Amino acid sequence: MIYLVISREKQKDHITMKYSKKKLTALICGVVTIVAASIAGWQLMPMSADGMRQSTVIVEQTTWHEVCIDGKPQLYFSGAMGDSALLGVTANRDSASHRKRMVGCWVNTLPLIPSCRGRVATLLIDKPTNPRLKGDSAIVRLCRQSIDKQLQTLKAQKTELDYYLRVHGVQDNGYQTIASLADHINKVLADVQRAGHMLDSLTNGKHHKLTLKTEATYTAVYHNNEGKPERVALNVNRINRQNSTMLLQTTDRSTPSCATPLSRTLWTCQPKGRILAVGYPGLGEDGLACDTIRPIVVPGKTTADGRHDMPQILVSDGAPVFTSKGWLAGIVSGTKIVNRLNW
Predict the structure, then answer these.
(1) Among 44, 142, 150, 338, which has the minimal tally of Cβ within 10 Å of its Cβ?
(2) What are the b/e assignments for 125-141, b being 16+ CB within 10 Å?
(3) Distance CA 239, CA 244 (A)
(4) pLDDT of 67-124, one tens digit each?
(5) CB 277 within 8 A of CB 315
(6) For the whole model, what pTM was predicted?
C-alpha cells in the first residue's frame, strides 16, 4: 500500500517536471522568436532622414610615393610624368601627399543582424601607380633632376621674399601674409635640400638598392553626438572590383555611437523614379575643410538610362542612394548608381 502511494507520487513529480521543461522550452523559444522578429523588423524599417544622414561618413584617402633605399622609405615624390620625370621629390612625406575625399556609409555585413563593427562601404579608390623605371641609376637621375629644378625655383622665390621683407615693415599692408609665405618657402626649401643631401650620400661607394612604392591610408571623418569632429583610422577590409566598391573598417573594430549602420535588404531595390541621397556639399573642393561640412539629404530622380540627375558638387562618389520610401538602393558612382552591393 505504502509502495503504491510512493510510486504514484514519483509519477506525479515526473509528469510535473516534464510539463515544466516543455513550458520553459516553449517560453524560451517564444522570447527568442520575439527578439529575432523585433531585430529583423527594426533592420528592415525604411530609413528616416535623420537615419540617412547618420549612416554616412567622410572617407579620406591619403596617398604618397616613396623612394625606398635598402627597403626603408627615405625620399618621397608627389607624382610622375610617365617614365621620364618625378615631381616634387622631397624628404618630407606630407609635402608629397595627396588627399581625396568621398562619402562612405556605415554598414552591417549580415542581413537583419547588427554586425557593423566599424565597417564602412564606399566606392573603390585606386592608388596611383608608380612609373616603371629600370635600374637604380634611372631613379637617382630622375630624383636629381626634380631636386635641382625645385631648388632653382625655391631659391629664386626665397630671394624675392627676403628682399620684400627687408624693405617693408610690419606696418605695411600684407606684410604678415608675405612673412607666412616666406616661412613656408623656407621649410619646403629645407626639405628639398635634405633630399639632395640624402641623394649625395648614395655615391659613397657602397651599393644601395632603390625601389619605388605607393602607399595609402584611410581615415573616417564624422561628428560625434556632441557635434565635435572626430577622425578615426581605417584599414582595408575587402575590395570588390566587380562592382568597384571597397569595405573599410576602423582599427579598433568599433562603430561610433552616433552612427546608424545600413543593412542590405533581402530583396533588390531598383533605383527608379524619385530617389534620395545623402551628400556633403562641396566635399573635395579647394578651400572647404571636410571637418566643417555637414551631410544633407538631396532629392533627385533617375533618368531613362539608369543615371541620376543630382549635382556632383552636392552628391559625391560613395554617397548612399535610397528609394523615395527610404530603402537602400545603392551608392553613387559619378552619374551612375551602383546597386549590386555586396559587403
Answers:
(1) 44
(2) beeeebbebeeeeebbe
(3) 8
(4) 998 889 999 999 888 888 899 999 999 999 999 999 999 999 887 788 899 999 999 8
(5) yes
(6) 0.78
